[in-house]
């Protein structure tokens, strides 16, 4: 898979993910909230969207009441931390390390009615997520409380507050045309 690292506002990706799942969340009476500060990241946009689509899809699928919250926070070490929280079934400690394995599924999810029958997944979503995260030089970490919910977290490099040129700087050394100032 070809990696294409660019710089982009995280907001745009979160909005896209939100659009993909707004209807599903509404249909199931779940809240879906995205919260990002005005922050730009350096990453592969398509892969990041895939990671978030998978995590939000799981979060909604294994949650029967409450909802899902995606938060992006700038940290002082130059990274942005993304957390995908849910108030769902949670994952028991003995399964937590294994849910990232290919084809691994937790068979019993208690009260979640949507995790039944024909809609059963293959157990590939989180394996894909972790593989994509590795390609982006990061790792997805899970914390979960059975019966209360889960949070899947990872970090991305942030673009520090700076002046960014739309065209290569060496081509326009004295020209401010096309220059964009990031206020963050
Ligand atoms: P697929 O994603 O291939 O359609 P899947 O959702 O079963 O199928 P994964 O996304 O890899 O597969 O997840 C593996 C297992 O981890 C799931 O079957 C489920 O038991 C558990 N799981 C994943 N995300 C959550 C979550 N947010 N809350 C509770 N359990 C989860
Ligand atoms: Mg899945």
UniProtKB/TrEMBL annotation:
The keyword Translocase does not apply. Its main location: membrane. Residues 1-160 form the Histidine kinase domain. The keyword Secreted does not apply. Keywords: ATP-binding, Kinase, Membrane, Nucleotide-binding, Phosphoprotein, Transferase, Transmembrane, Transmembrane helix. GO terms for molecular function: ATP binding. It is found in: Membrane. This is histidine kinase. It comes from Dyella halodurans. The chain holds residues 308 to 491 of 616 of the full protein.
């Amino acid at each position: 898979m070809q990696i294409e690292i660019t710089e982009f506002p995280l907001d745009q990706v979160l909005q896209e993910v939100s659009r993909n799942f707004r209807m599903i969340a509404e249909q199931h009476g779940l809240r879906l909230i995205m919260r990002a500060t005005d922050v730009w990241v350096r990453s592969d946009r398509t892969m990041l969207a895939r990671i978030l689509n998978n995590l939000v899809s799981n979060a909604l699928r294994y949650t029967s009441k409450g909802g899902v919250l995606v938060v992006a926070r700038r940290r002082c070490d130059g990274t942005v931390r993304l957390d995908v929280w849910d108030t769902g079934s949670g994952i028991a400690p003995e399964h937590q390390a294994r849910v990232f394995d290919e084809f691994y599924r937790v068979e019993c999810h208690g009260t979640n009615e949507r995790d039944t029958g024909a809609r059963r997944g293959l157990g590939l979503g989180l394996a894909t997520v972790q593989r994509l995260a590795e390609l982006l030089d990061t790792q997805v970490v899970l914390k979960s409380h059975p019966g209360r919910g889960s949070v899947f977290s990872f970090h991305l490099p942030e673009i520090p507050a700076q002046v960014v040129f739309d065209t290569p700087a060496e081509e326009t050394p004295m020209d401010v045309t096309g220059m964009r100032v990031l206020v963050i």
